């Protein structure tokens, strides 16, 4: 998922005794030791000390499965394994863990699409997307409530994307079973650009190993994974791998406006506040559907609210009262509370204040979820109810599945976050292409815009949950609508919206709608790439997104 604030302990696997790592031998000459000989000696020393190691030799554990999609039975091969990334001298530097699902009966070198999935954090493994979204198997979820403890409802996923694309889930370095190798420091991968670089190398390695260079290629990131996707799309293209499509789920492309003293973050949150107040029935004149209140909030946020915040302390009392009153009507908060907050309501305060009279809080990742604090008079929620409600089920399901169904066994602990590793520190600086320059806070929408200008066939689909309070959809619209695309490129950008939170797939109705939208989008992206000329932009008088216009 994301889990930038959710730091969970390591899970140690109680498995069979460790099997010695299979490391290829290298015959060095003379008195100097080869890289592989040094690595072997290091591995032996660590093994003698009882350290569980990532393999240098690439592992593959294969199993068979089947899923029925729209009445069609799809047989597939599931592969849990590792990709070894090497530097330009051939020295192994990283072992990235992955789980791939490939349709049976398709030969290497196929033109069948392939999609690489990953979560965010930064530093999160991919089991959130893996267990909940478009794999051939899924943890079944329903209402926004606590998922009961084991046994979990896990099984075939009729909304899988396997009918459209092969699927590969990648774990970020330091997370899951992904580890640095040899004397390479983990910090070499902990940064905006460092992270995008290792993902690019791993995708290139996978495509080379399994003959997928001629396959239409897509990347699918969630949360910080969308930050990664902006940089990754450009880096892959710069290395000779032009993508067919980028899927952005619950996006945060630009961290710059989250700095203290800037008002854009409050503007970005306002439509999400309105949607949440609508869901919890906190509006006096509640419209029939959430899209209506969202449209009203967009107009207010881009108009009177933006103008009021821009005036800072010079705003007149009359204008402050008028804006607070209208904001109250949209968010369900009292005008007095809004004025005392200087028209700038932080997320934590909104989570605590909206349902304060019923002694309940609302979730951050999904504001449909409600929690209860010991201190009902507090300033912020004591925990995130939407995270607490699902984490145990997702973690438990994955740990059982990866070891007993996929058969990947190791004594290395599966890290639920790279933040649990020693020496964790993230380098937030980013070198953007062109005029983007060096950024202290990344905005990889700059990179994605450059990739779209360079590749007229590159399609981008933004998937958004109305109740996502971690990465508000209005902020996504702002970032992607400021990529400065030409009219011909704007037609390659589309937005979709669902009655769900950050993990939109938790809502089964939203998951089904997303599958329908993605199926049509994949068909369009693949067919456009086969045309002799790039697709043309639609008329700007129409809704290019095919859904609620983004502002």
TrEMBL record:
Annotated region (Disordered), positions in chain: 21-40, 528-551
Organism whose genome encodes this protein: Sphingomonas oligophenolica
Taxonomic superkingdom: Bacteria
Residues in the signal sequence: 1-20
Alphabetical keyword list: Signal
GO terms, biological process: proteolysis
Protein name per its UniProtKB record: Peptidase S10
Any one GO MF annotation of this record: serine-type carboxypeptidase activity
InterPro entries (alphabetical): AB_hydrolase_fold, Peptidase_S10
